[in-house]
Amino acid sequence: MSRTVVVLNGPNLNLLGLREPEIYGRVSLEDIKAATRARAKTHGLEADFRQSNDEGELVTAIQGARTSAAGIIINAAAYTHTSVAILDALLASDLPVIEVHLSNIYKREEFRHHSYVSRAATGVICGFGAHGYELAVDAMANILVSRKTK
Ligand code: DQA
């Protein structure tokens, strides 16, 4: 089994640290990448961490993960609330999916309460800021161990 977990980040997350820090915090995506990779390593996993502002590029990355990765962690950002294409790609991947959001989307505007991604996700981690990515890696490691022992 692949030991790679693809960690996908959607539009505007490249601006983390600068963008609405009162909502998203002051940690940069580069810092989150380093913490996520380090956390993955403690579980013997490798985090292939990516960001794109482009919906099609995210779909292509999910399709690539289908044959090369053990699982997908995704913060689809605004596409969470709009993208049937990302949902369909996740469903087609046949991989465990964990959805992450830095903010608690249920505490925010109504339009953020609906997530297409959730229909494909084993679970959702939101509201814990950058730490959510590490929590997601722990959850993914747990899923992969229990799958292996089945
Ligand atoms: C987000 C929440 C989304 O509603 C928003 O569009 C984002 C970031 C989060 O991580 O809290 O860009 O996914």
Please summarize what this structure is.
By secondary structure, this protein is an alpha/beta fold. The protein is built from five helices and five strands, in the order E-H-H-E-H-E-H-E-E-H. The longest helix has 18 residues.
Explain what the structure shows:
This protein is α/β, with parallel strands linked by helices. The chain has one domain (4-78, 89-102, 123-142): Dehydroquinase, class II (Rossmann fold). It is built from 5 helices and 5 strands, in the order E-H-H-E-H-E-H-E-E-H. It has helices at residues 21-24, 29-42, 55-68, 84-93, 131-148; strands at residues 4-9, 46-51, 71-75, 97-101, 123-126. A 5-stranded parallel beta sheet has the order 2-1-3-4-5, sandwiched between helices. Helix 2 (29-42) packs parallel to helix 5. It is globular and about 40 Å long. The two termini are 14 Å apart. The model has no long low-confidence stretch (mean pLDDT 96).
